[in-house]
Amino acid sequence: MSPEEGRPDPDALLAAIKAEEPRGRLKIFLGAAPGVGKTWEMLAQARRRRAGGEDVLAGVIETHGRAETQAQLGDLPVLLRRQIPYRGQMLEEFDLDAALARRPGLLLMDELAHTNAPGSRHAKRWEDVAELLEAGISVWATLNVQHLESLNDDVARITGIRPAETLPDRVLEVADEIELIDLPPAELRQRLREGKIYRADTAKRALESFFREGNLAALREIALRRAAAHVDTEVQGWRRRAGVASPWPAAERVLALVGPDPAAEAVVRQAKRLADALHAPWIALHIERAGEGTGSAHAVRGPLALAAQLGADIEVRAPTGGDLIATMLDLASTRNATHLVIGRAAAPLWRRLLGRTLGYQLLRRAPDFVLHIVPALGDAPRRRRSRPATPPSVLPWAGTVALVAAVTGAGVVLRDVLPIEAADMVYLAVVVASAVVWGLWPALLAVALGVLAWDFFFIPPIYTVTIDSPRDVVTALVFTGVAVLTGGLAGRVRAEARAAGARIEGLRRIGAFSRRLGQPTNEPDLLIEIARQAAGLAGRAAVLIARGDELDLRATEPQGESLDEGAWAAARWAWTRGEPTGRGTGTLPSASWRFLPLRTVRGGLGVLGVRSAEDFDDPQLQALEALADQAAVALERVRLATESARAAALEDTQRLRTALLASLGHDLRTPLASIQGAAGTLRTAWNGLTPETRADLLASIEQDVGRMNRFLANITDLTRLESGEVRPRLAPVSVAEVVDAALARLPEALFFAVRIPEGLHVLADAALLEQALFNVLDNALKYSPHGSLVRIRAEAEAGRVAIMIIDEGLGIPAEDLPHVFDSFFRVHRGDRTAPGTGLGLAIARGLVEAMGGRIEARSPGPEAMMAERPGTMITVRLPQAIGTPVNAAEPV
Amino acid sequence: MTAAALARILVVDDEPQIHRFLRPALEAAGYAVERADTAAEALRLAASRAPDAVLLDLGLPDLDGQEVLARLRRFSEVPVIVLSARDREAEKIMALDGGADDYVEKPFGVGELLARIRTALRHRRAADGVPEVVRLPGLDVDLARRQARVDGDALVLSPREWALLALLARNAGRVLTHRQLLTAIWGPAHVEDIQYLRVYVGQLRQKLGPAARLIATEPGVGYRMLDEV
């Protein structure tokens, strides 16, 4: 044994943690038949709990007028039932919302398999219980074993009565505790006879039917086995959590073949029981056969839904190479199935004679599998064979008659010209044509009509129907054979084409969805598009998006559509549960809308509502589900894009704010310190200062105030630039003039070397360009030693003009180059920056970019002489003004 | 007043505007002023002109202020007052630990700066010959006899309390950082245990009674024994 095997299975631990979340506990009082005392026992225990101080509430208790039960109810508080108006009468039903609001510590619910009155939130009482458990309310419930879904067939077979109310086996499986209420059949019958269960007349009938001793014994055995199986799972769960190695071979797997035949549901139930007994997972496989069309899809929907409910993996396959058995065996071996479950369907006689039944073939071709063949239940209600939805058309029949008539007419006219033998061929052509176009039955009509017409008009004696020569008989047989063969083949081809068409249509639609939903870049547009696409499928659509715990109606098609109260309830349910809800589903089926959750792996986003005049059919539902999936993905994509854009913007803002604070710290404090110092000196030492010193200190104060003013003005400028408030007025501007204007604003005692071609013009706003160049020059001076040279050059290059400002200053480290134009960025050298704010270059960039230009920095500059003074070159590129002659060869 | 009697203050700052008002302010208060704009200049002047006190701005273009302080301390015990921005607390503490005597936050009042300079100069003179008794307003600390008297009444102190009081008194006027106090009294293993210090300072203040106000808290930095009120 490897060390891992002794370790607890992490998935099992996770499941245990999940199971231990504050969820209500479910205890089921399981009985074999009515009257064994489930409700009585539940009430007795509940009263003990209540005496112990627990908050016990009787949700629904059906006393059936039994005195013992009534007495046992005693003083337990009972929840008032809800009145539901239904077709002119008042129905009483368990009030789920009141129970949720009341939040008892323990709620008692009789008859777990009960079907709720129409108009309730859930179709079944066990769904109410599921919601209560989810809400953290513990529930005790009673249940008779015959209501379990998987036992439906067995019970029907044993008792001859098929229970109408069933509940999925998993409800029993998730129960935290099961208490079996057992009463030997003889005692039960005795109680029945004493009138303790039903009134005398009813009891008499019951004793003869359901409550026969044999029935009760069988049911009792089933109930005992079920309770034992639950104990077994508990032990197994404990083993898994505790890391005890499983004694069962894990390799067992059950594969059930579900077809459109009456045995399908029996197959599903048998497979489930088998899987349970083997502690094995199971798969329900349906193989779509082209020839069966949509009718078969309808027929298997029920059994497949049942299988899903019973915990199967559902697989739907198209046959590979038309061979059902090969497809099944292929899946069986890839999924490591060990047991195959099939139904004993009524096969045609010829198949049985030829040994071509499914069971026989599997026996022959699959020797490695354990094979289970389930009989179809004789008394099972015959499933309505639903025909394709298209209404029967007159056209095939009328067309066939018309063809035969036309050919006959032509034949009669040409009778003397053509040989009689040709007539056979012509009628044969008609048979083939109608078989290919309309299928088997019209073709057979064509055979009948053709043979009659042919005999009547062409075979001597003419104008009489007499088939007397063997030749005529042969002809009639050949016609029939051709019609059957061609019609069958053509029918199958058509069905396959239709199935392929439907599949392609589905794929095409998914492709179209993702294409259409991929276009909108913002959420409102996308929601409108989702509603439009859904309305294209269903008629009306609404998109509801979650905001916190609430749903907002965000888009409808047609616009202005509104939801009624019932629809809202269904929408909220679909949203909180992540399940389709409303019309055509098990939850709130009376709502006029159907809601599909919009979910991705990251969670629910909202719901998609659709409403249509008719019920939704399968392809429509599939398309809607595909749309909901695609819509959720598209919505998440748009949101992620928005989110990351916002995060990036936030990060920028954050960086800017940090830089601003740092800058304020330095650039406001330094002048403030100087102003305070100067003012303090003047105040405290006025008499000790010479008049010149006093004047100097006052001037210093003025200068620092000016410096702070400039700093604040810079911040304002930058804010305006960054918010796009600055609108440049572009016009041809002489570069030389603008550079002169910028230089004029700088101190005179500096050295500049200017080389700009005469007549070089750029398309710019003169005032903004002057400010930008001033900032760049000012920056160059700040980082250059006194007395060094700053060069200014300009040249035309491919429709643009480059203005270069080259200094011999300290340069910019390579790692800082990308940031020099960022707001508040300063190349770090202590906190020395003279009157710098770290805004000069950022403003220059803002101005240049507002004019459609670019600015970049390079260091070391092109004329670096000394390592300690590499210099910097800043280049401003702007569009050249058109129509202004340039002579670059001629320096100024 | 002769030139030799003038105390010489070296002002190190790269901001011309600071020099512009400090020079007249200090000269009017009777000090001689030396100006340095860079660290290199500051170290050269500190070595060649032997100033009586140094005002040091930590943000210098050519060398980090802490490094300037460290190099200065290699050859000089001159009192150093650090000029620092308020939001650079860590730098401030580092400078005090690194041998600075005091700090002034920018922007500062001239009066406050002059008071700090006076204290620093006095401390320097005192350090030349350590007195046996430190006399503070309302409190005498007799270092030789290990006795403290508030308005003439002797205090009963535990050994730790005495050590704390003596250390503060010996450095009266100077800021002592948490780290310096903890290292001196509890040892280097306890430099982070500021809560010890809080407890002992609290006890000491209680015992000092009316003289408690002499122990001033420098928030986030340390404590200072005031030598003038």
Task: Please specify the SSE layout and strand pairing.
The complex is a heterodimer of chains A (892) and B (229).
Chain A: H1 10-19, E1 26-31, H2 38-51, E2 56-60, H3 67-73, E3 82-86, E4 89-93, H4 96-102, E5 106-109, H5 125-134, E6 138-144, H6 152-159, H7 169-174, E7 177-181, H8 185-193, H9 200-208, H10 213-242, E8 254-257, H11 264-278, E9 282-287, H12 293-309, E10 313-317, H13 324-334, E11 339-344, H14 349-354, H15 358-365, E12 370-375, H16 395-413, H17 420-438, H18 440-458, H19 470-518, H20 523-538, E13 540-547, E14 550-557, H21 565-577, E15 581-582, E16 594-600, E17 603-611, H22 618-684, H23 691-722, E18 731-734, H24 735-744, E19 751-755, E20 761-764, H25 766-782, E21 789-797, E22 800-806, H26 840-850, E23 854-858, E24 873-879
Helix pairs in contact in A: 2-3, 11-12, 16-17, 16-18, 17-18, 17-19, 18-19, 19-20, 19-22, 20-22, 22-23, 23-26, 24-25, 25-26
Chain B: E1 7-12, H1 16-28, E2 31-36, H2 39-49, E3 53-57, H3 65-75, E4 80-85, H4 89-97, E5 102-106, H5 110-128, E6 133-136, E7 139-142, E8 147-150, E9 153-154, H6 159-170, E10 175-177, H7 178-185, H8 194-208, E11 215-218, E12 222-225
Parallel strand pairs in B: 1-2, 1-3, 3-4, 4-5
Antiparallel strand pairs in B: 6-7, 7-8, 8-9, 10-12, 11-12
Helix pairs in contact in B: 2-3, 6-8
